[in-house]
Write a structure and sequence with these properties.
Chain lengths: ~250, ~250
């Protein structure tokens, strides 16, 4: 078999609908024989590319999903493994590289996408114009003590902070705990924002204070933004100025 | 005049060539009468959209550029203000919102794009799979003491750190200074990476240690990645694992 046939694209399809996809992502999907992914994401692209072979795996079966994509590519298929947002931000690309030694012939190419932090920022205004830190509150794969330390130090450093996975059924009070840690360094009036279902039906966004955010109901589809000491509200938008003289 | 005519898109066109652009960005450009931006970015899109009115401003004239875009929209034109990468990450969207009160009729819409951190990560492997902090080393608009504090605390928090604007003619030793600060908390063997001219002709990338990075020559087109304590090299790629059991 020709080695160049063993090709796996790891494709970030953006946060919501197809409009958030890059042209490079479209080309990768078009050029693939098989599309592999969590069913929610394969269903998003299936309408546009009905003639591909689709392989779906349930949630929490990430290792199986990546192995399946590598195995299909190893058989000579051109494969796209699709991820929401960017495949390189809490996505599948790390895991694929970790498994690569089992399939040394497969050529891997990551196709970058728009992660929820960027798409959510565009909805809220311009919260990420200056230095920021991105933190996942999920402690499935990370000890909570490490998350706690990062929250405290990021707040002390006056980063704008973006939170992924701010809540789930088992972790209903994690956002509250995170806000309490950040409140040790930032004012209760700090400008914050949240966006739900970015780019999808039911998209909802809100600008509020850190004190209000602490008691807000969020879910696993919410992306949370906590401003720095400079962030302010302009005409209802969350904006972090960069210091230009006007 | 119909208020809906006064529309300004702030469009992130991705890091390099047109393939990094989203479909939403393409639609915004197609639907615009005027395209405004720094000449390097307007020239990138001019070939695909030759029939638009183009307005370019030199570097460091960001305030003029944003005012011009707002003024054109206020005259009833549909305008795209183009930025490299994502308009919301060290881009023009913050400034436009700050100037918005001068042009209250203009409806502003930010179209998110792939910022250099994401595109560079895709080139290097999977360095951003876990929590990360993004820091610009430019002290044109930010006091160096604040940058220094953020570097130190981000390293202490064991974030993967991405550096934008790591060097310029006047700031040739800033990357060295940043590495020295990070070395107070991270090992000299920490896995690092750099990418130059992402998605453009002459793209170059390199994986190296923090100790080596300290003495590396970089320029204003380089994006620098400093791993966390878990980041490692797999088949020449920079990979930060997330903790899945394989």
């Amino acid at each position: 078999m020709n080695e160049t046939q063993a090709r796996l694209y790891i494709v970030g399809i953006g946060p919501g609908g197809r409009d958030g996809m890059t042209l490079a992502a479209v080309q990768a999907l078009k050029g693939s024989d098989c599309i592999v992914g969590y069913h929610v994401y394969t269903e998003l692209v299936q309408g546009d590319y009905p003639d591909k072979e689709y392989y779906t795996t349930p949630m929490k079966k990430e290792v199986d999903r990546c192995r399946q994509a590598l195995a299909l590519a190893d058989q000579g298929k051109t494969v796209s493994l699709v991820c929401s947002g960017d495949a390189g931000v809490y996505g599948m690309s790390g895991l694929v590289y970790q498994l690569q030694e089992e399939y040394p012939r497969v050529h891997i190419q990551v196709v970058a996408g728009v992660t929820a932090a960027l798409a959510g920022a565009a909805v809220l205004g311009a919260p990420l114009i200056h230095d920021f830190a991105l933190i996942s509150l999920s402690d499935l794969l990370t000890p909570w003590e490490k998350i706690e330390k990062r929250l405290l130090l990021a707040a002390e450093a006056d980063f704008v902070i973006v939170l992924y996975n701010p809540s789930s059924k088992k972790r209903h009070d994690y956002l509250q705990k995170a806000c309490d840690l950040i409140l040790r360094h930032q004012s209760p009036d700090t400008v914050c924002g949240l966006v739900e279902q970015i780019g999808r039906e039911g998209e909802r966004s809100k600008v509020l204070t850190l004190k209000q955010l602490r008691d807000e109901q969020v879910n696993m589809f919410t992306t949370v933004f906590i401003g720095n000491s400079q962030t302010r509200v302009i005409e209802g938008r969350m904006v972090t100025p960069r210091g230009y003289e006007l």
